[in-house]
Amino acid sequence: MKNNKSIYLLFLVVGLVISVGSIFFIKNTLEFVQTAAHTNGKVIEIVARTGKKHNNTYAPKVSFQLENGQESTFVSHVYSSNISYHVGQSVAVLYSPTSPTNAELNNDFTLWIGPAATSFLGLIFTLIGGLAYLSTAKRSKEIARLKTIGQKVQAIVMGIQVKNYRVNHITARSLLCNYGEGSSIATFESDDLFFDPSDSVNGKTVSVYFDPTDHKKYYVDTEELFEKKLETNPQTFT
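^ thats the sequence. predicted structure below, dont judge the formating
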């Protein structure tokens, strides 16, 4: 659980950093649009860029004339898998009067796709990290409460359940364990584990703490179980 909390906190921090960066991205784009000079240019070349998977993306290289009559060129910052322009095509251009090489195509998509994508990415990371971190913190508080006031029993590990999601490329798993005999058997499932506990835990006992007033609230103390396992087999989790 501590490792999960660190991962979620990292997601939150990364999301906040990206969100702050997106604010500056938006601010710079607004300043550029408000202060840029307007003109028309002509596409003189289609520039291809090869990605890691050897797939090409394309952007137009544009030539335009400054107020003093000089020619300047730039390559659009936005590449796409489709060739959306052709050589000789006339396009609207925005450029900085003080730095003509700072230029871009004058259309909303090209100007705002960068800030929009960065803002969305920051929002996703912040929401995932923040909600998961708060959920983990709440669970940690509940575990501490159950260890203090809960009834402790020894359950037998019956198997491992593999979940259908991953965190940091590691598939989540949980332990299934039983307590009691005959028709009064209670089944408990541990919190998610992000390593393979292996079948060697089957038949081992594990402490379970449950709320005497609400048996649906419980905690399977896997830390205690795997601390013992590490002591007897230090090579297991290397």
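The chain has two domains: 2-122, 150-232.
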